[in-house]
Amino acid sequence: MSWKASSIVARRGIAGRSVGSCHRLDEARQGKWAYVYGPYAEPVLRVRPGDVLEIETADAFGGAIRTEADLPSKVLEMPWVNPQAGPIAVEGAEKGDALVVEILDIEPRGPQPAGTTALIPEFGGLVANGQLLNPPLPERVKKMEVTRAGVRFSERITLPYAPFIGTLGVSPELEAVSSLQPDYWGGNMDLPDVAPGAIVYFPVRRAEAYLYLGDCHGCQGDGEICGVAVEIPATVTLRVDLIKGWHIAWPRLETETQIMSIGSARPMEDAVRIAYRDLVRWLVDEYGFEETEAYFLCTQAGRMRVGNVVDPNYTVAAAMAKAHLG
Amino acid sequence: MSWKASSIVARRGIAGRSVGSCHRLDEARQGKWAYVYGPYAEPVLRVRPGDVLEIETADAFGGAIRTEADLPSKVLEMPWVNPQAGPIAVEGAEKGDALVVEILDIEPRGPQPAGTTALIPEFGGLVANGQLLNPPLPERVKKMEVTRAGVRFSERITLPYAPFIGTLGVSPELEAVSSLQPDYWGGNMDLPDVAPGAIVYFPVRRAEAYLYLGDCHGCQGDGEICGVAVEIPATVTLRVDLIKGWHIAWPRLETETQIMSIGSARPMEDAVRIAYRDLVRWLVDEYGFEETEAYFLCTQAGRMRVGNVVDPNYTVAAAMAKAHLG
Amino acid sequence: MSWKASSIVARRGIAGRSVGSCHRLDEARQGKWAYVYGPYAEPVLRVRPGDVLEIETADAFGGAIRTEADLPSKVLEMPWVNPQAGPIAVEGAEKGDALVVEILDIEPRGPQPAGTTALIPEFGGLVANGQLLNPPLPERVKKMEVTRAGVRFSERITLPYAPFIGTLGVSPELEAVSSLQPDYWGGNMDLPDVAPGAIVYFPVRRAEAYLYLGDCHGCQGDGEICGVAVEIPATVTLRVDLIKGWHIAWPRLETETQIMSIGSARPMEDAVRIAYRDLVRWLVDEYGFEETEAYFLCTQAGRMRVGNVVDPNYTVAAAMAKAHLG
Amino acid sequence: MSWKASSIVARRGIAGRSVGSCHRLDEARQGKWAYVYGPYAEPVLRVRPGDVLEIETADAFGGAIRTEADLPSKVLEMPWVNPQAGPIAVEGAEKGDALVVEILDIEPRGPQPAGTTALIPEFGGLVANGQLLNPPLPERVKKMEVTRAGVRFSERITLPYAPFIGTLGVSPELEAVSSLQPDYWGGNMDLPDVAPGAIVYFPVRRAEAYLYLGDCHGCQGDGEICGVAVEIPATVTLRVDLIKGWHIAWPRLETETQIMSIGSARPMEDAVRIAYRDLVRWLVDEYGFEETEAYFLCTQAGRMRVGNVVDPNYTVAAAMAKAHLG
């Protein structure tokens, strides 16, 4: 893709790297899924910068919800949810580098209806969440057919297939944190921009980075308001790479048309502040803006995308069109 | 515009109303600006449903910042900021009705450079806001030329002219609240969708509604992160109307392609909840969805727009494409 | 009281002022209650610094809940709740002064059971508050006998009579804001320390200050978690005074043993920050601490009291024992 | 202690258990400190219910700040802070039990001045915390003499010695989370009530519970507002026990005079809700209250204590006097 000639990857001198080996990580090779992002598990795969990976992911329920009669409270056992593929070791990655994940494709897999959404008791953006005395809303499961042609929401509504990776990131240095949580290492950001056509950058904190992913969505509204998107098992195709010595504090993302900083925190305004501060600093460090000018430009032309407002941290991205970056 | 044949206005039986009188409310007729949204002032104009209004608005600084040397701390005196045109009495409006404001045009006025943005001490999304011990960032003013051709941000960057009304709404029943605040009555929402082509609905709380407006922006990024957009004096053209007996709790907005509920609160997630709950209820009441289905549809296809994350309440809108509403 | 010899009042030179006139403001003289804190009403009483006031207040429901069968949704009509006595004009008060309110006594009045608490639909700290889809908890009213001997909570539990003024403050300059809201002018702070034995200081924003009060509580837990304390009609005895030119940004309070700064905001941590920052500055301005030392002392010896976590703003006080102030 | 005859421990049938073995866990036996609360480390000690433990803890800086010239940015290396003793395996503990930790004594140790507080860049309740553009406040360290006679804050101020364990808890089931974080497992709650005379209950999530502790404070104000209390190395004496099958969701605490539920979350109001909801449920389950009565009693007589407003989660406790429990 031609836009990559001016991308961060290009600016950082690795755009021309030839494509490396291809790896396939299917369910059998993965063996047991991972449920934390952490440094304590053994890698299931070891790759080199430039390699292409084809990875099978489970849906967020580990496939336990097969029909609309499989209520979450019956078939799920906490904390064994949101299973992840990985960790995948990336040779040469060290604390202080940035891991580059280029998302090439997301293909739904498994028997139809492959897509699942649900009302889970005491979970979601518009219900009492384990802090109030109100009785929970009734549980409910909705299964949907999901193909590249669309997400069949109901007889009269078919939503566009707009797949992305709900949970993607690297290991913290010391901690092993639930795959339900988004944070500076990525994780459960549920951000629709983490989609084919995007390159995502993560701060490496331990040797070999330890990449994890899972939780693909056939489509999702901003905020994932009930807490469960169109959850699908999928085959994901990625290309990984490495930018040595690029110290970033939070995940960043780039497409043909924009750059984006991603913050995760509570309350939600803290996620906004993290994202916009990181974007301001990115404009200063990489695009030659004086800090106040960058702050003004974000004020007049910044764009925000809300990932989730339901997870242990909320995720918000702040973006700037490349058209304004000269 | 043909889309209005299926709009709320049409559903509520007033779409075909013929255009009424035209009124002009210029600075001279306004006299003193209003600084609160409230029921205690005398109306400066009285109109009928269906009437068209051409209104001159001041910029958020009341024109006091003429050059980049006019620092806010020198030329502004709190709480005399964000001057508003109004109140405009709408005949026949009663508590329990919805006021309809169709935005037809926003024209910049005044000598160039008409646009102003600024760093104001202890104000804005990325600075310590009167609650911390850090010293403030230095004040700074930036003036920009603003015409229909664009906002001249700098020598190399011209942003598209994308004007909207930053502060627009009706009077509360008992309270008279600063024009800096957004709430259920509208007010300082700083939401870029409040723009030509949109119809905005407000809950009437007092007899004759008392419409106020001001604070036009030549363009603005999502969140208005430094706290000050491209502030311009403007001439605004509106058409007002009335839907009798349509009880709405928060402002709603409609364009050719989407419907939108607008919430304002702190912390920001509460604004999200207000907006999405209102959208769910709108889908149920007006479009025949069962509540859980509406919640699921918002989860899979809702879109969010962040107005501001800097005012006394933060403003977030939740939207649904009409394409999904059958 | 001897401690007042070293109080702010003494430091500011008005401690020795002789007691002025006595005024009685009963329900008849009040006439209609006030429902907003604002500058637009006519004063019901005009007093001088040093005067003593005996004031009859209504309970937060305006006496409409007489028995446990009087459900709030039946007998209350929003926004006509939390009626206030006032405004009381204080001669000589100007913007930039501090109004001194010394609380001398609170006496329950009216027929027994005088105390009321209630579960109000969609209101309170542990219920879904107009932002969620959960159905509300059932309404309920509980009446309690309240005398100086105690609050008879149930057959087996009598709570100590610990009365305070739930809503107390002065007018903003331009705004007229609901008596349900606490803010920099005081208002509905629901802070149990606003009790006999305390002196409270408010920032004057308009000529003659315009003092309001109401909403007395027979006792209350920290946070007023269900949203309704032991609401009582009462007779309050105050002494008002004036400190010319003492610019304070938020209410402050003083007792024999401590000084206290009071913040109101959302989210709750912002109220904490406001209160502690104000306390730090108070230690610096009035007690000779260097700023970092004041910050350290608050960290090691500050005490917090939570007023409410249910009103439009949450209220938190930060206090320092006078024993540490030398 | 006689009050224990009516304690939870007594109600749950283990009050009379005879004292078991005594164990000493000094620095040498601990070897390397732990920096996460998690299930992946090997226990450093294995004890039985009823056993008494004498444990040496490091201060939150691992002793790296010896003088006021040892600035945090120079001598600390993230994430290697807040070192913990443990994990200590408790035989027989299983998921679904409650671990009982009775705090018997906290003795300062090490050369004087043993106490340390500090301003750390971009950390603390009244400074910009990695989300804003303001420059940080200057770093500063303050050393204090700490003995059982008091904390020598300055020449003129000696604060009472009021020691407690800042960080105390058990392992999550799957996660290994930084010792800087408080959550449902306890951890860095910084709650001054976790002191000699208290019994603390924790939800066991993995076999043998895995108890961790560290971060003792010589004294601390509510909220630990600058982020650093009077940090001391200490010798802690505990007695551990086990209540089989007592499912609790969050830590609970009991003293002679009160019971207390402890919540940790952001924003702060969520910590309040967690704590009060848990207290309501405790009153219902253990003390025979109907739920609404328990909610009313908390509203009228609940007491709150703020632990910290500076850590990754904020910690708030809600308490009820035993005097009201019959």
Distinctive features:
7-stranded mixed β-sheet; 33% strand; 9-stranded mixed β-sheet; 13% helix; 326 residues; mainly beta; homotetramer; globular; Jelly Rolls
Describe the structure.
The structure is a homotetramer of 326-residue chains. The first copy, chain A, is mainly β and 326 residues long. Chain A has one domain (3-247): Jelly Rolls. Chain A has helices at residues 8-11, 27-30, 72-75, 268-287, 291-301, and strands at residues 22-25, 36-37, 45-47, 52-57, 85-90, 98-108, 115-119, 140-144, 146-147, 150-152, 158-159, 164-170, 177-178, 182-183, 186-187, 199-203, 211-217, 231-232, 234-243, 252-254, 258-265, 303-306, 314-321. In chain A, the strands form 5 sheets. In chain A, strands 1-4-19-6-16-20-21-23-22 form a 9-stranded mixed sheet. In chain A, strands 3, 5, 12, 14, 15, 17 and 18 form a 7-stranded mixed sheet that branches. A 3-stranded antiparallel sheet of chain A has the order 9-10-11, with no helix packed on it. In chain A, strand 22 and strand 23 form a beta hairpin. In chain A, helix 4 crosses helix 5 (291-301). Chain A starts with 7 loop residues before the first helix and ends in a 5-residue tail after the last strand. Chains in contact: A-B, A-C, A-D, B-C, B-D, C-D. Chains A and B meet through helix 4, helix 5 and strand 22 of A and helix 4, helix 5 and strand 22 of B.
Shape of chain A: globular
Distance between the termini of chain A: 19 Å
CATH class of chain A: Mainly Beta
Task: Tell me the helix content of chain A.
Answer: 10-25%
Mean pLDDT of chain A: 95
Runs of chain A in which pLDDT lies below 50 for 5 or more consecutive residues are: none
Number of helices of chain A: 5
